[in-house]
Amino acid sequence: MTDLFPKWTNKLPAALALGAAATGLFVVFVVYFWFSPRHTDVGYQPFQPIPYSHKLHAGDKGMDCRYCHRMVEEGPHATVPDTATCIGCHASLNGVKANATLAPLFAAWGNGETENKPIPWVKVHLLPEHAYFNHAVHVRANVGCASCHGPVDQMEIVRQVEPLSMGWCLECHRDPTSHIRPKGVPVTKMDWVADDQSRAAAKARLEWTGDTRPELNPPTHCSACHR
Ligand code: HEC
Ligand code: HEC
Ligand code: HEC
Ligand code: HEC
Ligand code: HEC
């Protein structure tokens, strides 16, 4: 046997084992890196300059998301409300004697002598520059806020619940039937769930009939999202 195999092959099993171990570690690292919350940002929940609560305003008080996120149906960005939107209620609710919690709100609001300043809200959801996203398109297709943002109306502090990765976008684009609401169900209804009937209705809106383009057509080609 020793004549058939040169001496170095004795070390081969050990080398292979080492290689396998290294590959294993590498795979673990890649999986960890790509799917851990740190990379996908799932769970990202920064503190905000004012402890504004969606649970209180949108949940308990039932305020419509669009009262504050005005551009969500018309433009690419949902937009965050300006200081005046908050003051509209809080000036009369709290008067000028704001408590400590609301002090930054009244400090941002000019008093005639000082200028109105925007509140420096910390952005939670953020796509990289090279990816194009448009709210209006999705909202008009009747994809609800909850499909992409989760139960915001239950959140004291907003957190990211979806990865916002390319794979996540494509997963829905390939089969959005569980996310497209029947006409008449508002996109802001946070607890809506799909059923067989709604899925069938969505499917009909996504189907090609002969050469006729479907009503809804989520793209999967690169240039749709990378322009
Ligand atoms: C009274 C105004 C108001 C209402 C009503 C409101 N929001 Fe907001 N929203 C804000 C403010 C202010 C911020 C920025 C501070 C923060 O993140 O909490 C925000 C932030 C967000 C963010 C995170 C934005 C980012 O930086 O990525 C999402 C998502 C969101 N709102 C969704 C909703 C949804 C869905 C509803 C309806 C269920 C809703 N909002 C109702 C005021 C409002
Ligand atoms: C199809 C997924 C999807 C739907 C549906 C959706 N959003 Fe978003 N939203 C996103 C993504 C992705 C971002 C990050 C955009 C960026 O960084 O350019 C975002 C960002 C935001 C922001 C931060 C400000 C901005 O425009 O970047 C707010 C506020 C927000 N969404 C509110 C809403 C509300 C309210 C609804 C429902 C009326 C809604 N979104 C529906 C995916 C969605
Ligand atoms: C439609 C009216 C309305 C608007 C607009 C509104 N709020 Fe409120 N807010 C309320 C009500 C009502 C309460 C509960 C007051 C209470 O229970 O004493 C409240 C409570 C709060 C509290 C808790 C107050 C405390 O003393 O602990 C904060 C913080 C707050 N709002 C911030 C904001 C911010 C920031 C905005 C703008 C993004 C905003 N609100 C917009 C009606 C509003
Ligand atoms: C929950 C389902 C869902 C998710 C998640 C989703 N989309 Fe879409 N998207 C749709 C649907 C449905 C349409 C088709 C709209 C139509 O044909 O009117 C669409 C259409 C589009 C379009 C074509 C319209 C336009 O604006 O040019 C782009 C681009 C797009 N989505 C980008 C994205 C990106 C980027 C993401 C991830 C950050 C994403 N989408 C996540 C459902 C989704
Ligand atoms: C539905 C929207 C959508 C389509 C279609 C799409 N992408 Fe992306 N792509 C994204 C988003 C969103 C990101 C950012 C993901 C993130 O931040 O993790 C991205 C990121 C990337 C990146 C950067 C990877 C990174 O780690 O940042 C590359 C490269 C890329 N896409 C290539 C492609 C190619 C090639 C195609 C066509 C085969 C394609 N994309 C089709 C939405 C899309």
Alpha carbon gyration radius: 26 Å
Task: Pick out the low-confidence regions.
Answer: none
The fraction of residues assigned to DSSP E strands is under 5%
What is the element string, with H for helices and E for strands? HHHHHHHHHHH
Major sheet size, sense and barrel closure: none
**SS field, number of helical segments:** 11
Q: Look at the helices and sheets and give the structural class.
A: mainly alpha
Bound molecules: heme C
> What percentage of residues falls in helices of 4 or more residues?
40-55%
Average pLDDT number: 87
- Overall 3D shape: extended
First-last Cα distance: 63 Å
Q: How many DSSP E strands?
A: 0
Structure description:
- It is a single chain.
- This protein is mainly α.
- The chain has a domain at 125-225.
- The protein has helices at residues 12-35, 37-40, 54-60, 65-68, 83-94, 103-108, 135-140, 145-149, 166-174, 196-206, 222-225.
- It is extended, with a radius of gyration of 26 Å.
- The N and C termini lie far apart (63 Å).
- One heme C binds at residues 65, 69, 72, 77-80, 125-127, 133, 135, 138-139, 143, 145, 147-149, 164, 187-188.
- Residues 50-52, 56-57, 61, 63, 68, 81, 85-86, 88-90, 93, 99, 101-102, 105 line the site of one heme C.
Q: Strands, helices and their partners?
A:
Blueprint: H1 12-35, H2 37-40, H3 54-60, H4 65-68, H5 83-94, H6 103-108, H7 135-140, H8 145-149, H9 166-174, H10 196-206, H11 222-225
Bound molecules: heme C (5 copies).
In short:
The protein is mostly helical. The protein has helices at 12-35, 37-40, 54-60, 65-68, 83-94, 103-108, 135-140, 145-149, 166-174, 196-206, 222-225. It contains eleven helices and no strands.
